[in-house]
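Mods, move this if it's the wrong board.
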Amino acid sequence: MATLSLISSSWKIVKNDKETLAFSFLNLACWLGLFAAFVYAYMLLSRYCSIDPEILKRDPFQYGYTPYIPFIVFVFFSVLIEQFFSACIVSCAIMRFAKMESTFFGALKAVFFRLPALLGWVVICSFFRLVFDFIKNRWLKAAAEVTFSLTSFFVVPIIIVEEEGPLSALSKSTGLLCNTWGDQLKANFGFGIIFWIMLVIPIFFGVLLGYEKVRALPLLWTISSIGSYYVLLSVFYKALFEVFRAALYVYVTYQKAPDGFDEEELRNAIQPKF
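Not the wrong board. Structure tokens:
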């Protein structure tokens, strides 16, 4: 119930500041464009450099570092897109909490002002993501990803609000985590559970209708409907989650609930550990 209440509070902010949804949609559109470009580049590379995927599996460095260049570029720009638009949404929320006028270009201006620090953070994130991809043990990889995700949870708000550098912001974010680790994990887990429940709704309805009825539906209509649903879900989830992150940062840093959020809700979601 607490998670649903926090989502409801986040939705009130998103509803009043449509810019958050615009940034979330641009985030998805840019990522899809990047993914299409990556697939096309990899196909060209495989064709003109005569790269055999089977040989690459047996010996990852048979062709040197050439096959990994598109992947490294993809990871960097993927992280750049994710962090840039996260910063834009966080900026909108912070301006709203500070009783300032929240505008699309105002948020962009705030983020571009902190762009050098944000780019430094993108480089750090990209490096760790590449390192995680080389970890063979899936449990160790999952543990490393979760640990990094939690310790870096407040980095973007700290860079935007406190004008810190990427390393200093990571250090401060880790410090906040050490004081609030248990319930912060619970809050993140709650948001994730709601998202996954929404994610499997089409599958649930498909099971209810049965295979024959689903098969009888027009293919184009089915694909477009499910695709539109997942696009909307992704857009709304990112906007809501980034607003929640900004609200949590304000509460943890200043011990005061921002406008639109109930102090008791945030206290229940994340409480200092002594």
